[in-house]
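Recap from last week: sequence in, structure out.
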Amino acid sequence: MYPNLSPEVHVYEPVGPDLVDYLARIARFNTRSQQPTRWALEVHGGPDFFERMCEERSGAVAIFSGRNRGRVQRIGAAIEAGFDVLADKPLIIRREDLPVLEAALNAANERGLIVFDMSGGRQEIIADLTRLMCHDPEVFGDPVAGTAINPGG
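Predicted structure tokens:
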């Protein structure tokens, strides 16, 4: 857990085995013996999950994990709704989705939003060094409190 990151998470997903698996995984993180997390989930399940996410705007960042089917189209829609996007798998896996991804990246650039593919970040030395530097006050400084509208002050 990052000290200045809200533990409140809104989960938008259809009710089914993928949602159950995700909730069980988070429960394991929250109850592990070493460095447990404290994620507080608010689940919005149902067939209209994605439309509700875009309409309700419960946060500033949309995080995509799980299956890839329809992911790049949802990333584009999340950008259109004004979300920054983090994706925990490759953004696309099919060459024919490249134009859709390009349009989403262009839209993000025009709106000043971020689209980041986190799929390889856990094993990259740059990610490890960035994490260390962010926690070193001599390098990064002191964290600044932020709001939902102005993260990090």
